[in-house]
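PROTEIN DATA CARD
Card holder: ABC superfamily ATP binding cassette transporter, membrane protein
Chain length: 586
Origin: Lacticaseibacillus sharpeae JCM 1186 = DSM 20505
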Amino acid sequence: MDQSFLADSGEEIMKTLWPYLRRFWGVEVAAMVATFVYAFANLWQPKLLQGVMNAIIKGNNDAVVRYGVELLLLALLGIIAGVANTIFSARAALNISTKMRSDIYHHVQKFAFADIEKFAASNLVVRMTNDINQVQGMIMQALQIVARVPIMFIGALVLAMMTIPEMWWMVVLMIVIVAIIAWIGLTVLGKKFGQVQGYIDQVNTIARENLMGVRVVKSFNQEANQEKKFAGASDKMTKVSVQIGYIFSMMMPGVFAFANIAIGAAVLIIGHNITDHPAYLAAIASFVGYMMQLFMAIINAGFIATGATRAFVSLGRIGTVLQHQPSMAFKDVPETELSGSIEFNHVTFSYPGDALPTLRDVSFKVEPGEMVGIVGATGAGKSTLAQLIPRLFDPDSGQIKVGGSDVRDVAEATLRDSISMVLQRATLFSGTIAQNLRQGKPNATVADMRWAADVAQSEEFIRRLDNEFDATVEERSANFSGGQKQRLAITRGVIGKPNILIMDDSTSALDARSERLVQEALARELTGTTTVIIAEKISSIIHADQILVMDHGQVVDRGTHEQLVQSSPIYQEIYTTQKAKEGRNA
Ligand SMILES: Nc1ncnc2c1ncn2[C@@H]1O[C@H](COP(=O)(O)OP(=O)(O)OP(=O)(O)O)[C@@H](O)[C@H]1O
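Structure generated from the sequence above:
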């Protein structure tokens, strides 16, 4: 997998984020206004407190009441602004992340096979979930804290200096000390957060592999081994998380211990003034309040910096997907119907990133309605060849024609409607059988479904299900057997009566009788359809109009079964080996 897209410049990151920020600017401005009000309310509180204390010292009851009411109102304003800020920030963050997620999803739908391979499917899922969550968290934090930090820092700094000007050096000294503690603590924490993220990925991978391959794990008695692997990663994660807890538990009291030292020092140095000027007591209280606000601003800045680094990495990863142009584009031409002829002219193909071609100089021709068999050793390139027909990949050189047209010149819908592909590993989607079948023909009626099920030999078992075609297909179609899944996939493949039907080892889980019945039904019901059958067993393609024999990415021989048995050494070898095996099994 290509990793070169992990690092991104600030400009790239802004390019990704800016359209989303602009789109939801209203709610973002509302969040910022609320944050300004909140900061103002907080900054004004120590001043009013000072006023109350002075009034008490002077015994001015009216002023005490007035300041007290003002203080209450200010606190109320602060609470309202804080709540409003949280609501607007959450709304903005959610709006942005939802739109981003749907944009990635729509964009990925346009990707060619090669693009999905480049990113790896599971990696794309992580980008749509985890990375988006990181960005969502950052936006929320940014709208809640980022605007507040400079206001609180500058405001508290100025007001602290104004409250007791001769203590300016104490303010500067404390800022330096707290900044150093926060910097050291957060640098260490940043690294630890990174480690925890790595362990979370490991734990997820092990759990997913283990659960998805649960049958293999159990049949090979691997439970203990898998548990050990899981426990190893999980223990490491716990250890680092505990370390993070320790650092946190030391950092915050550490900062506040310094704050208290500052208070102590302030009282010591200027405390003697209190007897002569009692107003000093109120000033000290106000000064201490501002110092606390100053420290919190520094710590918050540190937290944002730590969170932002991670979110920027995520934004970079999201941007790479959004800005990736699909490597293969279909022409914007009107949809047409293609006949079932297939022609390969000197086709050479390599998978993205591979140095050597998987298919080399492949040429052959198939007439509409023919049945073509493809045989060859495992890894010979049979599936690769089949994938080029519906243009899942483009060849490096050469030309592929379907219905007489170059596949690069027709609309995507034309190809998808004319060609249907059934794979060995049948992929069904959770929902109902009918929903899965309608992927093959959107407006399929129950009669269409019955006809297709009859061809694919799935009618019998579907009829025995409680809701027949409305029966549920669970996630990963776990409620069906391997053979039933294949039959359902064939049903979906034939329901649209395609002009070309490609079956890539898609009857491997069927018994010999069912396979024969499927083939007979295909020949009877889909007379005009060209059928391309990739088969392990020669018996599956023995009646084909022509058979392509593949070896190391090349079509080495072509002909009917009778011709190849006479002329093709590779075919002869496959055939005699299979016959000998059948003889032994009989
Ligand atoms: N998506 C892919 N990316 C890179 N290489 C691939 C990919 N799919 C297949 N290959 C490689 O291409 C070669 C041909 O694979 P292909 O699946 O076409 O063979 P096959 O003849 O269908 O084999 P089998 O009978 O085992 O299904 C193999 O060496 C395989 O490793």
